[in-house]
Design a protein that fits this description.
The chain has one domain: Rossmann fold. The strands form three sheets. The protein has a nine-stranded mixed β-sheet with strand order 1-2-3-5-4-6-7-10-11, with helices on both faces. Strands 8-9 form a two-stranded antiparallel ribbon. By secondary structure, it is an alpha/beta fold. Helix 2 links the parallel strand 4 and strand 5. The protein has eight helices and 13 strands.
């Protein structure tokens, strides 16, 4: 496990005690041969417009990956300068938005996708079902079918069998569920879209995702969990009568010795998803002996990307931590 600072270790300990617990099939390809800096500024969400791809990256937008009657697509981020016949590891990118909003082509996903492609990965930013009717577990099935899509099209896009997953907020929750429920019969999509293709992933990065629907809390304005349990928009059944369904949709209950390596990154000032969600998962991974890391960011709230929160730099180099993690588990068999 990655060594944390003494301040972070003391915070974790106190929280635990206090908490009681190629390119055909795409509608367009975007390239740009101009030189750009490695950390291009990301516009504010309110003014966000999908930009040209930076140097070294090819972006294929709105690639079909589900049956014809489904309108959800995915965006592919590919390294532009690979030797012929190269097979690169891939990462499925899952956006947030409370399971009912968000966009595969938002600023955060562009940030993650371009960083991954520059580091030699194929990124697939996936759209999934967000409508209220049938949302769960179809959204999970969609994300797993994105993994299968990558394997089914491995030769076409130059992808190895080493596939990972990353997501933020609701996307972090879904990324964990993709990683942790491989082979769970009741959460496995039908085999009719990509027959014979596996949805197994080998590494998971969780950005401020919910890990236990049953224990999620509200917080004080500074991000301190206050003990008041929160409802969920994912499951229709209320907590009292739907506890089993809430548990079934919570990643922490699937942790075992075969769980893929996991990196969690969470802001200590997060008022949307309380920080104990990450700490609880970290404790479960420790008990199961799963390779894992936990980065807790002081003074940082919800919805940050690899570089910044509210246009301010993060207090730690999260970008490098994510790339090192994926390199360790996806580039090294």
């Amino acid at each position: 496990m990655r060594t944390m600072s003494s301040l972070t270790q003391s915070l974790v300990a106190s929280f635990l005690m206090w908490g009681a617990t190629l390119f055909a099939g795409a509608s367009s390809a975007v390239t740009n041969q101009q030189t750009t800096t490695p950390r291009s500024p990301i516009p504010k969400k309110s003014t966000w417009k999908f930009p040209p791809a930076p140097e070294g990256v090819i972006i294929l937008r709105d690639v079909s990956y589900l049956p014809a009657h489904r309108r959800e697509k995915l965006d592919l981020y590919l390294p532009a300068h690979r030797p012929a016949n190269t097979r690169s590891p891939a990462v499925v990118i899952i956006h947030g938005g409370g399971w009912s909003g968000g966009d595969k082509s938002s600023a955060r996903e562009f940030n993650i996708g371009t960083v991954l492609a520059r580091e030699g990965y194929v990124g697939a930013s996936v759209e999934y079902l967000k409508e209220d009717h049938g949302r769960w577990p179809t959204n999970l099935y969609d994300c797993k079918n994105a993994v299968r899509f990558l394997r089914a099209n491995a030769a076409r896009y130059g992808i190895s069998d080493r596939i990972g997953v990353i997501g933020g907020s609701a996307g972090g929750h879904l990324a964990l569920m993709v990683a942790y429920t491989y082979g769970v019969p009741e959460l496995t999509p039908p085999d009719d879209v990509y027959p014979g293709c596996s949805d197994q992933v080998y590494a998971c990065v969780n950005f401020y995702g919910i890990t236990d629907l049953l224990t999620r809390q509200s917080t004080d304005p500074d991000g301190t969990p206050n003990g008041q349990l929160r409802d969920t928009a994912l499951i229709k059944a209320p907590r009292a009568s739907g506890a089993k369904e809430w548990e079934k949709a919570s990643p922490v209950y699937y942790v075992n010795s075969s769980t893929p390596p996991t990196l969690s990154v969470h802001g200590l000032a997060d008022t949307t998803v309380d920080r104990l969600q990450a700490i609880t998962l970290d404790r479960a991974l420790t008990q199961a002996g799963v390779p894992h890391e936990l980065l807790l960011l002081e003074g940082i709230g919800h919805t940050f990307d690899l570089d910044s929160w509210k246009r301010n730099p993060l207090p730690r180099d999260v970008r490098s931590a994510v790339i090192r993690f994926f390199d360790r588990h996806l580039k090294t068999p």
